[in-house]
């Protein structure tokens, strides 16, 4: 009986994406529901990634709700039927805050982006809420900030095959 063979997966590919919001109040006035701003693309794990920020929501039922998405641009780069597994989290940081603590850090999400269709994963920024006495959202308190996404493209699952013998 032949021993199984394994393929060593490539290491995790990590990158950081950022988008600066210079004036949330102005952006909210000027970008209607469904309109967004995008970060520059970064390449991680052989795929192009961006942050998309919708200050007035992406769809009719989210009007007035700021939403951030992680997007994989080039879904055709993956092999047919392969999903791209990603671990990511969003951080909201005061712009020019001099390295102070983040205003918010999301949970870490692990998701599979499909190579068969364009797919984005959302985290509504209404969850970025201050628990201070004022009860105001961080958007009301800080008009300028950076949205950061720490991204790790995970290696594909290891496939084991029995060697022919």
UniProtKB/TrEMBL annotation:
Protein name according to UniProt: MATH domain-containing protein
PANTHER family hit by this protein: BTB DOMAIN-CONTAINING PROTEIN, BTB/POZ AND MATH DOMAIN-CONTAINING PROTEIN 1
GO biological processes: protein ubiquitination
Matching PROSITE patterns: MATH (PS50144)
Boundaries of every MATH domain copy: 14-151
InterPro entries: BPM1-6 (IPR045005), MATH/TRAF_dom (IPR002083), TRAF-like (IPR008974)
Residue ranges of the TM segments: none
Domain of life of the source: Eukaryota
Pfam families: MATH_2
């Amino acid at each position: 009986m032949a021993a199984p063979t394994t393929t060593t997966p490539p290491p995790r590919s990590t990158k950081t994406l950022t988008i600066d919001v210079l004036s949330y109040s102005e952006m909210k006035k000027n970008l209607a529901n469904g309109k967004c701003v995008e970060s520059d693309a970064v390449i991680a794990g052989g795929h192009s990634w961006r942050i998309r920020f919708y200050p007035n929501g992406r769809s009719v039922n989210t009007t007035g709700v700021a939403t951030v998405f992680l997007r994989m641009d080039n879904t055709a780069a993956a092999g047919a039927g392969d999903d791209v597994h990603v671990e990511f989290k969003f951080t909201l940081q005061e712009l020019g805050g001099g390295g102070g603590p983040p205003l918010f850090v999301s949970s870490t999400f692990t998701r599979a982006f499909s190579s068969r269709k364009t797919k984005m994963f959302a985290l509504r920024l209404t969850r970025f809420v201050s628990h201070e006495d004022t009860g105001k959202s961080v958007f009301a308190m800080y008009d300028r900030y950076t949205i950061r996404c720490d991204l790790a493209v995970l290696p594909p699952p290891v496939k084991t095959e029995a060697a022919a013998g």
